[in-house]
Amino acid sequence: MLLFKNNPKYNLYYTDTDSIFIDKPLSDNLVSEELGKMKLEYVLKDAVFLAPKVYAGMTDDGKFISKIKGFTDKSLVTLEDLEGLLVKGSYKSLKHTKWFRNMSEGSISIMSTPYNLVQTQNKRTIVFNDQDKAIDSKAFTIKN
Question: Could you tell me which PROSITE patterns the record lists for this protein (predicted)?
């Protein structure tokens, strides 16, 4: 991943353990189903990257995709919802159905639970513009 994270050939919009979102196609020799190569999953024409493992976008063929860590009903969140959450202090309260196992009783309960979708600064510092909209993030600086 280091090959892509600090490469001046690309603008890197989002990265995770095994994925990148950049502004240009990768060289053909880097993309393959072969182990260790990159796999092209989406070409996005519009996207919002709100937090680690929380993003959504519209593909160039009009399909909506979203990834929201720990949330089961992604159909409840739109691209516009995530765009609105870029504003400092904004959040979206949702509910979703989760399964809970009780090993000692040998039972499974299905319950509706709250889920708050919000920006987080637990891994990076969010940079806001004059209108309090998130425009970037920066790595934490560790001081002695």
Answer: DNA_POLYMERASE_B
